[in-house]
Write a structure and sequence with these properties.
Layout: E1 4-7, H1 13-24, E2 28-33, H2 37-49, E3 53-58, H3 64-78, E4 83-86, H4 102-126, E5 131-136, H5 140-143, H6 150-170, E6 175-182, H7 189-192, H8 198-202, H9 214-225, E7 236-239
Parallel strand pairs: 1-2, 1-4, 2-3, 4-5, 5-6, 6-7
Length: about 240
């Protein structure tokens, strides 16, 4: 059976690294993006040049209709989605919770949590099993991200609860649902929060004394999707240098 993976928010960072790795492992890859069509297409072109199979598909995955259309297009062009990686996420400028406006809080929840819910639901409506889902959380869910991104941390906590509950609901269908929880990873997201050099600032305080690379998270995602993790479901795997 051919393996088709849909990766949301895959034009950069962890999503892009995961797309490259999974394509190298024999998956046909749907690279979802919201606005950055150029980077998404460059990634697809790179995968194809290396002998893989990939397409770029635009969709705002926090919108129900666009999620349905996204799955329709992937099925039409690649076949049924057998594996799902919910990676799309957003954060805003570092601040304390008292300074977070409702509009920002709701946007973080919509992009980070609603998108995960919608894509999980659509995947399961089309694929009752077997299959595998990996949701990208963050160690911020455990640490709370005080003085920086409490709203972001709260959204990742919701993703972990969704992961655990859904895993229990669909285990009997042979659908495994897990999460990865990255720590300080070198991605563009830190610039979105207003501190591009955040990893270098905090890394000396970690047990491993360094920041992580996106491909190291991608390897964990691949393992959770693979048959090597066939007895793993409802788990949140830290990829955080011991943090």
């Amino acid at each position: 059976m051919s393996k088709v993976v849909l990766i949301t928010g895959a034009s950069r960072g962890i999503g892009a690294a995961t797309a490259e790795l999974l394509a190298n492992k024999g998956f046909a890859v749907a690279v979802n993006y919201r606005v950055n069509s150029e980077k998404a297409q460059q990634l697809v072109d790179k995968i194809i040049a290396l002998g893989g199979k990939a397409i770029a598909v635009q969709a705002d995955v926090s919108d129900e209709e666009q999620v349905i259309n996204l799955f329709n297009e992937v099925e039409e062009r690649l076949g049924k989605v057998t594996h799902l990686v919910n990676n799309a996420g957003i954060l805003f400028q570092q601040t304390t919770l008292v300074n977070v406006e409702l509009e920002r809080f709701n946007k973080v929840m919509q992009v980070n949590v609603t998108s995960c819910f919608l894509c999980c639901r659509e995947y399961l409506r089309r694929n009752p099993g077997p299959g595998a889902i990996v949701n990208v959380s963050s160690v911020a869910a455990r640490l709370g991200a005080p003085f920086e991104y409490v709203d972001y941390a709260a959204s990742k906590g919701a993703i972990e609860s969704l992961t655990k509950g859904l895993a229990m609901e669909v285990a009997a269908q042979a659908v495994r649902v897990n999460a990865v929880c990255p720590g300080l990873i070198y991605t563009d997201m830190h610039a979105d929060g207003g501190e591009p050099g955040r990893v270098d600032r905090v890394a000396p305080n970690l047990p491993l004394k360094r920041g992580g690379q996106a491909v190291e998270v991608a390897e964990a995602i691949y393992w959770l999707l693979s048959e090597q993790a066939s007895y793993v479901t409802g788990s949140c795997l830290d990829v955080a240098g011991g943090r």
